[in-house]
Amino acid sequence: MLSTVISMQKKKKFIISGIVFFVLFSIIYYMLDYLNGGYPKMIRDYGIYLVVINIFINFLMALISSTMMNFSTAFMSLSGKEGKGTFFGNIAVFFGMLTYGCTSCVIAFFAAIGITLSVAILPLAGLPYKIVAFVILIAGFIWLLIEIKQGKCKVKKIESSSDLV
User: Which terminus of the chain, N or C, has fewer Cβ atoms within 10 Å?
Assistant: First the structure.
């Protein structure tokens, strides 16, 4: 079924949705970098290499996230069920918002839900946390691919031979 899902990605519907998802995820990931001080602060504190790494990881994460959304949509239309691997994408985005967002927002959020300890200072402008989110995203993508490979198309079962006439 994986080859069918991949071939479906060439349809206009999936190309447009892929572009839209990529742009939306890119905005989310770049906005998180901005909330963590922005690229000028990263250059000033750590050098240009950190900005290049962050932009590259943002690009990869947005690409993987949008591909997961498209694959999951195609898989759902073929099998009638959504892949569980896309859940990891949601975890990665949520993890990113909590860990490399602005520290005061994270502390306030955790305090609101009853957690009093939080990350107070983030090394390398949150890059280790972004890498963890990236690994979670990769795990979800692999899980989704396995689900698609093992998936079956929805086919209605014929009750009796009289239905064929």
Answer: C
Contact 136, 72 (CB under 8 A): no
Spatial distance between the Cα atoms of 7 and 100, rounded to a whole number of angstroms: 36
CB-count burial class (<10 Å; 0-12, 13-18, 19+) for 139: middle
Supply the pTM of this predicted model: 0.70
- Looking at every residue in the chain, the average pLDDT score rounds to 75
Percent helix, strand and coil across the chain, each rounded to 5?
80, 0, 20
- 45: tokens are 């504190």
* Digit-coded pLDDT (tens) for 66-83: 888 888 888 878 776 655
Q: Which 3 state secondary structure label does DSSP give 162?
A: helix
Identify the three-state secondary structure at position 156.
Answer: coil
Task: Report the C-alpha gap between 87 and 134 in whole angstroms.
Answer: 14
Burial zone of 88 (CB within 10 Å; 0-12 exposed, 13-18 middle, 19+ buried): buried
Angle (CA) 87-90-93 rounded to 5° is 150
Which residue has tokens 């107070």?
120
Q: Identify the pLDDT of residue 162.
A: 55
Look at residue 37 in the predicted model and tell me its pLDDT: 76
